[in-house]
């Protein structure tokens, strides 16, 4: 197909029009086009989404070529599109091309520079508008990503912003990036959450970490409320979270005594004036079955043994919120309702220090759980890279040569965390499970770059598998080494993770056991 375009003569003396040049519009095989000299040398032709778009939808914007003396088509503009189309193909096998006269070298170089220097990508607000228009036409998020070759997380973020006016206005004004606007849009209905996000942004803390903490806290509140409603359905007078927060004191009946100094029988607790039920969470430690089975002295599997993880469960506790009305009193008092200041032999100052440390442990443990979610989502994207970042070889060398225990353990167990981060199902239930899958992962790394990246992924996944709430309490040099490398490669750590880097003072808790909730001693006589 050809189009002939006539242009008017450019001389003022001659008013008549003349055909100064003929231009054509053709469809050409990209493999037949000669790649002429171009000022642009970095084609970035390995961009996955760009290659996918060319292969599925073809070249949408015509390239520019000219005919040389031999009648061959030589490329002027559209080098990246042409090269990629020749490599991956198009639905028709052809690409659109505009044929122009051969320019002088000076004109060619100038035009190529102008085209690349002044090319502007779509603003994020324009991407949101485009995604919104497609969504209004009934195009699904998956189809939008496919049609536009925009990655799915960006499409999801754009769709989220279209439903939140305030966040979208801030995106349009340039106050927020698309990623930030999507986070604010999620919590736009909650002023307190928005305020926390604003503070995080103001102090340049990670919005992703703050958002995950908000999600986890909301999920915890929802679970707590569901348990309250369940117990109320059974007829128990359960305090809501709001009632607990508003109470001056929440005292366990089991820790109180009668006027005679005797503990009240459990069956009498519901009859105490003003008695209510407070739902608390307590740690459960599964019995160590391994120790029972190993009484014969067989220690052949000691190194592979991992004790069952402790977990939390809801426990209904009878309490009073008005000690005087209950007719009970604290232990150690003679009819007085004044608080027993602390444990025996402990001053009030010491008790407050202990309580403050417990609060810190609880807060940091919850922060670590939230950070783990964000970190592993980031790592899942990171390990999918095609090439390793700068400094990867040194980290790999250190892990392998020193035989770091995290890597040794991962190798012994067929890299379970690597499977998780790569999104690969790992078979279990038999000796050597995962061997074939590990072999497939290694076989796919057929180039030096791919092999380096795969090995780096294995090293990082092995470290990640050994992290937990203990990590911020007892950070190691290897924790600082790996996390420091991740930060250099683009990861933004949360405040609690920065403890591993030595950027925050740390006080030892003196215990390696989970401390997500206050101890029984502390909870007995203090407001929740």
UniProtKB/TrEMBL annotation:
Pfam families: ParB_N (PF02195)
Swiss-Prot/TrEMBL keywords: Coiled coil
Region span, Disordered: 284-311, 329-356, 500-528
Compositional bias ranges of the Acidic residues kind: 285-307, 341-350, 512-528
Domain ParB-like N-terminal per the UniProt entry, residue ranges: 26-117
SUPFAM superfamilies listed in its UniProt record: KorB DNA-binding domain-like, ParB/Sulfiredoxin
Protein's recorded name: ParB-like N-terminal domain-containing protein
Organism, as annotated: Nocardioides aquiterrae
């Amino acid at each position: 197909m050809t189009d002939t375009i006539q242009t008017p003569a450019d001389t003022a003396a001659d008013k008549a029009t003349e055909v100064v040049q003929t231009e054509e519009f053709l469809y050409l095989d990209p493999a037949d086009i000669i790649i002429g000299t171009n000022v642009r040398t970095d084609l970035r032709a390995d961009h996955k989404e760009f290659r996918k778009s060319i292969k599925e939808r073809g070249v949408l914007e015509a390239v520019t070529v000219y005919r040389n003396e031999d009648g061959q088509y030589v490329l002027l503009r559209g080098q990246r599109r042409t090269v990629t189309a020749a490599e991956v193909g198009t639905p028709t096998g052809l690409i659109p091309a505009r044929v122009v006269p051969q320019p002088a070298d000076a004109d060619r170089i100038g035009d190529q520079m102008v085209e690349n220097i002044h090319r502007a990508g779509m603003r994020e607000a324009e991407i949101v508008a485009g995604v919104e228009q497609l969504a209004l036409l009934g195009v699904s998020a998956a189809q939008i990503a496919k049609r536009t070759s925009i990655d799915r997380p960006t499409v999801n973020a754009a769709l989220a912003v279209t439903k939140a006016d305030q966040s979208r206005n801030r995106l349009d004004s340039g106050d927020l990036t698309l990623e930030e606007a999507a986070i604010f849009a999620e919590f736009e209905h909650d002023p307190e959450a928005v305020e926390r996000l604003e503070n995080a942004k103001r102090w340049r803390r990670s919005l992703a970490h703050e958002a995950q903490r908000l999600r986890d806290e909301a999920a915890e509140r929802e679970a707590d409320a569901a348990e309250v409603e369940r117990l109320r359905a059974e007829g128990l007078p359960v305090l809501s979270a709001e009632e607990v927060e508003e109470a001056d004191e929440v005292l366990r009946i089991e820790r109180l005594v009668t006027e005679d100094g005797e503990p009240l029988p459990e069956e009498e607790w519901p009859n105490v004036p003003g008695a209510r039920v407070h739902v608390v969470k307590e740690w459960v430690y599964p019995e160590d079955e391994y120790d029972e089975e190993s009484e014969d002295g067989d220690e052949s599997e000691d190194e592979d043994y991992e004790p069952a993880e402790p977990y939390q469960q809801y426990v209904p506790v009878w309490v009073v919120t008005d000690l005087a009305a209950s007719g009970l009193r604290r232990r150690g008092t003679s009819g007085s309702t004044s608080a027993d200041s602390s444990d025996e032999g402990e001053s009030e100052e010491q008790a407050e220090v202990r309580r403050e440390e417990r609060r810190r442990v609880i807060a940091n443990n919850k922060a670590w759980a939230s950070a783990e979610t964000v970190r592993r989502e980031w790592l899942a994207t990171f390990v999918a890279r095609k090439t390793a970042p700068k400094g990867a070889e040194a980290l790999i060398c250190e892990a392998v040569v020193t035989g770091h225990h995290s890597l040794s353990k991962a190798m012994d167990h067929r890299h379970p965390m690597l499977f998780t981060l790569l999104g690969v199902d790992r078979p279990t239930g038999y000796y050597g499970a995962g061997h074939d899958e590990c072999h497939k992962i290694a076989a796919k790394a057929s180039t030096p770059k791919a092999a380096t990246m795969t090995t780096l992924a294995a090293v990082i996944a092995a470290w990640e598998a050994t992290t937990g709430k203990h990590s911020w309490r007892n950070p190691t040099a290897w924790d600082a080494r790996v996390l420091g490398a991740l930060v250099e490669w683009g990861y933004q750590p949360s405040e609690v993770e920065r403890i591993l880097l030595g950027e925050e003072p740390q006080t030892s808790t003196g215990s390696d056991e989970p401390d997500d909730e206050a101890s029984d001693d502390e909870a007995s006589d203090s407001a929740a």
